[in-house]
Design brief:
The chain is an alpha/beta fold. The protein folds into four domains: 214 residues, Rossmann fold; 86 residues, Translation factors (Elongation Factor Tu (Ef-tu), domain 3, Beta Barrel); 112 residues, Translation factors (Elongation Factor Tu (Ef-tu), domain 3, Beta Barrel); 181 residues, Rossmann fold. Helices cover 29% and strands 28% of the residues. The protein has 17 helices and 27 strands. A hairpin with a 2-residue loop joins strand 8 and strand 9. Helix 5 runs parallel beside helix 6, helix 11 crosses helix 17 and helix 13 packs parallel to helix 14.
């Protein structure tokens, strides 16, 4: 009997735990405002620490603490050795805790400017931000920066914790002045809900219980507010949206589409559309690990089957036909740049949104934003931790939602195609409808027909190497011999093109990227005309050479690396450019103060230091004819 009672009690407890809501939040603000201490105090006050954790905390407080041997609650979440030694937060520390009313996942975010990208990572999944301000210092630059990023990432609820009130004698006027300043900032940023609480994280005043030292404050404690705050979710107003994560095909009798419902709800029998393809069907079953459902709602992980066979792939979005998402391939977006190397317009990146990955280019940076003043500043690039508004072009149309309506379908990351590192986080603002007025015009005479009448296979020979390497010399010899053999050719030389098509471009990294983009597009048009095109450009960056390659059918792009040692190039110096670069008279010169990224897998690798140019030219022709 006692066993049955205990079992029932456990079942009731587990059922109660499952039914509790979940709130995701972050703690952010300037360095030393007490974010980690506040979170540690919450864990301590809610009695979620085991005896061994308390013992460890006591020992760590003696060795690394900043409270003269007293418990240093920040050490509970500052897990990296460097964090403990320096007394700062570097990485985002995620912690779970719960009370009788609610479950919480909290991200303790770093305060230093150099770790702003880490803070953005924590904010990307949060519904509420606890913004800490040191009562002695008021609003600081990093407080404004973090608040701006919270607003950018769609957080509309802020708990303003004015911390260290014990160090200002619990002065109400200090608290009121900081609150007035922050409300002005919140109004500028569009943060609708601000609740301010005076606290002392170190002593626990107004953290989990009311403070006797601040009798003038009659609002809730910090924990009480977190337990009771109601977060409205904009995606609930949308129709059904589910990005397809996996096509489940265990046998020939079952085809299901698995994913997490991003918005809305769906019932068996409802009509749906798969985008961007546009195919329509009806929901036959909603399958889960616990059995079939009649209805699925936002946040549910499900597998749906359809009434009929449809061509739907990973990355597609299954949506309600009555209110489908938009489809586009060009967007305006906000970007937070997270890489040490600058963002260069025109460079190709991978864009990952939901479960779909496509190739993307930032076609234009409209402006960057001073996150302290919200001023719009002219910019041609974005550096680490800078925020900007940019136009983005994709190689395939995608289904999407505006980020503020549905972060799951409007938030994205940019990925470096060489290193696979995440270099930016972004939020889609709206589609650029300019693409709606542009369509592919069918022509009767195509690339094959033009090539057939010339009796040749079109190709692009892309010569790359340092200035003075002999690229143009070898390319000229190749074209001369091909012409004598009856082939139809044309030549695009870097210097010659800069006299006309690219005369408006300089030699910054941004202009070099655009220089290659334009030339690659011209070369593609010329191969479409059936020609063999020889391109002789330094083209120092691998990303742009890869971009050029991807414009051509497989086997029709031949990268020719004219590999000449820098010392020999300087010795030749036919235009006197190396001498000027060494003297500081010529900036952004490849090989001196601007890098050259050597090709990794060129079709032809010419070691050009001592081999005669005519021998090198013949190797290129042999490769071209042999591959035709």
């Amino acid at each position: 009997m006692a066993t049955d009672t205990a079992t029932a009690a456990i079942d009731d407890y587990l059922a109660q735990h499952e039914s509790k809501g979940l709130l995701r939040l972050i703690t952010c603000g300037s360095v030393d405002d007490g974010k980690s201490t506040l979170l540690g105090r919450l864990l301590y006050d809610t009695k979620l620490l085991f005896d061994d954790q308390l013992a460890t905390l006591e020992g760590d407080s003696q060795r690394h603490g900043t409270q003269n041997g007293e418990l240093d609650f920040a050490l509970l979440v500052d897990g990296l050795a460097a964090e403990r030694e320096q007394g700062i937060t570097i990485d985002v520390a995620y912690r779970f805790f719960d009370t009788d009313q609610r479950k919480f996942i909290v991200a303790d975010c770093p305060g230093h400017e150099q770790y702003t990208r880490n803070m953005a990572t924590g904010a990307s999944t949060a519904e509420l931000a606890v913004v800490l301000i040191d009562a002695r210092r008021g609003l600081l630059t990093q407080t404004r920066r973090h608040s701006y990023i919270c607003a950018l990432l769609g957080i509309r609820h802020v708990l303003l914790a004015v911390n260290k009130m014990d160090l200002v004698d619990y002065d109400e006027d200090v608290f009121s002045g900081i609150l007035a300043d922050y409300r002005k900032l919140a109004d500028q940023l569009g943060i609708d809900h601000v609740t301010a609480i005076p606290v002392s994280a170190l002593t626990g005043e107004n953290v989990s219980s009311h403070s006797k030292a601040m009798a003038w404050y009659s609002g809730p404690s910090l924990l009480e507010h977190l337990e009771s705050v109601q977060i409205e979710r904009a995606e609930n107003a949308l129709g059904f949206r589910m990005p397809v994560q996996w096509v489940c095909r265990p046998d020939q009798n079952f085809r299901g589409y698995a994913g997490k419902v991003a918005a809305g709800s769906i019932r068996t029998g409802d009509e749906v559309v798969a985008l961007p393809g546009g195919t329509r069907s009806r929901i036959a079953r909603i399958v889960t690990a616990d059995g079939d459902l009649d209805v699925a709602r936002s946040g549910d992980a499900i597998t749906v089957t359809l009434d009929d066979e449809r061509d739907i792939s990973r990355g597609d979005i299954i949506a309600a036909t009555a209110s489908p998402p938009q489809v586009a391939d060009q967007f305006a977006a906000h970007l937070l740049w997270m890489d040490d190397k600058a963002l260069l317009p025109g460079r190709p990146y991978w864009l990952k949104i939901g479960t779909r990955t496509v190739s993307a280019q930032v076609t234009e940076i409209k402006h960057k934003i001073d996150v302290n003043t919200q001023d719009e500043l002219a910019a041609k690039r974005l550096e680490l931790n800078e925020v900007g508004v940019a136009n983005i072009s994709l190689d395939h149309a995608i289904a999407f939602e505006v980020y503020t309506d549905c972060p799951e379908l409007g938030g994205f990351i940019l990925i470096d195609r060489q290193t696979n590192a995440t270099v930016a986080a972004g939020a889609l603002d709206f589609a650029l409808r300019r693409a709606d007025n542009i369509h592919w015009q069918h022509t009767e005479v195509d690339r094959s027909a033009r090539a057939r009448i010339k009796g040749q296979d079109p190709a692009c020979l892309w010569f790359t190497g340092l200035s003075g390497s002999g690229k143009s010399t070898v390319a000229n010899l190749v074209e001369k011999r091909l012409h004598a053999m009856g082939y139809h050719t044309t030549m695009l030389d870097g210097d010659n093109v800069r006299h006309g098509l690219n005369r408006d471009l300089g030699f910054t990294d941004e202009d070099r990227v655009e220089n290659i983009r334009r030339v690659a597009e011209v070369a593609k048009l010329m191969t479409d005309a059936g020609l063999i095109v020889l391109v002789s450009f330094i083209s120092p960056f691998r990303d742009e050479r890869r971009m050029a390659r991807e414009l051509f059918p497989q086997g029709h792009f031949h990268e020719v690396f004219v590999d000449t040692p820098l010392a020999i190039c300087e010795q030749r110096d036919p235009k006197g450019l190396y001498a000027k670069a060494r003297a500081g008279e010529l900036h952004n010169f490849t090989g001196i103060d601007s890098p050259y990224e050597t090709p990794e897998h060129p079709e032809v690798h010419l070691h050009a230091g001592e081999t005669p140019p005519d021998v090198l030219a013949q190797r290129v022709i042999d490769d071209l004819i042999g591959s035709a």
